[in-house]
Amino acid sequence: MNAIASGIGIIRLGQIAINAKDVDRAAKFYEEKLGLKVLFKAPPGLAFFDCGGVRLMLGRAEKPELDHPGSVLYFDVPDIQAAYGKLKASGVDFEDEPHLIAKMPAHDLWMTFFRDSEGNLLALMSEVAH
Question: What pTM does this model have?
Answer without folding.
Answer: 0.82
